[in-house]
Amino acid sequence: MSTKSIHFPILTLTEKSSALTADVNKNAVFTAPGLDKKVGHSIADALQARLQGLNELQLILKHAHWNVVGPNFIAVHEMLDSQVDEVRDFVDEIAERIATLGVAPNGLSGNLVANRQTPEYPLGRASAQDHLRIIDQFYSHNIESHRVVLAHYGEFDPISEDLLVAQTRALEKLQWFLRAHLDKGDGNI
């Protein structure tokens, strides 16, 4: 019995990049019913920026989860892991809304790096308090950025508005959990 080998063509780096770019940037000729295509695609572009920010946030949270140490290790380690899961769900919701609006969501690593919104996370192995102080700033960035998109596009698309309002509410709650660890008992962090 003879066996056949299957040949997989090897693409050069340039070929790989152009093949991915062509597929990722292809938008549909439609948007959600009741929206003008141009408006729908514009909203999707704004949501793509939020997809970017949330992808960054969930990666930062997971990194901190792996690298937190100190007396509050287990509490913070477990809290961050559940926050990663919740933010990942937000990423999926945003990506699905972008697709519904007729635009291809882009969550590829190259896009994530090329369109980075935040500075490199500065900590590796560090205390829970140090990680939480930095993560607090990344939460603030994402909450403020959600609010900007809401302010500009909320009136045009109540569905996207509802999604962002719910996520903003949840992000604020996650930040509150984090800030409770930073509060010195006098309301200051």
Care to describe what's here?
The protein is mostly helical. The protein has one domain: Ferritin, core subunit, four-helix bundle (Ferritin, Up-down Bundle). Helix content is 68%, strand content 2%. The protein has a two-stranded parallel sheet with strand order 1-2. The longest helix has 31 residues. It is elongated. The protein starts with 12 loop residues before the first helix and ends in a 7-residue tail after the last helix. About 7% of the residues have low confidence. Keywords: DNA-binding.
Rg, rounded, reads: 20 Å
The global form is elongated
Percentage of residues assigned to helices: 55-70%
Fourth-level CATH superfamily: Ferritin, core subunit, four-helix bundle
The proportion of strand residues reads under 5%
Q: Give the mean pLDDT.
A: 90
Helix-strand pattern: HHEHHEHH
* CATH-defined fold name: Ferritin
- The number of distinct helices, counting runs of at least 4 residues, comes to 6
| Number of distinct beta strands | 2
Which residues sit in consecutive blocks of at least 5 with pLDDT less than 50? 10-22
The total number of structural domains is: 1
Distance between the termini: 72 Å
Structural class: mainly alpha
Report the biggest beta sheet as strand number plus sense, adding barrel if it closes.
Answer: 2 strands, parallel
Order the strands across the largest sheet as they lie in space.
1-2
Corresponding CATH architecture? Up-down Bundle
CATH class: Mainly Alpha
Family: Belongs to the Dps family.
InterPro entries: DPS_DNA-bd, DPS_DNA-bd_CS, Ferritin-like, Ferritin-like_SF, Ferritin_DPS_dom
Organism: Alitibacter langaaensis DSM 22999
Pfam family, one: Ferritin
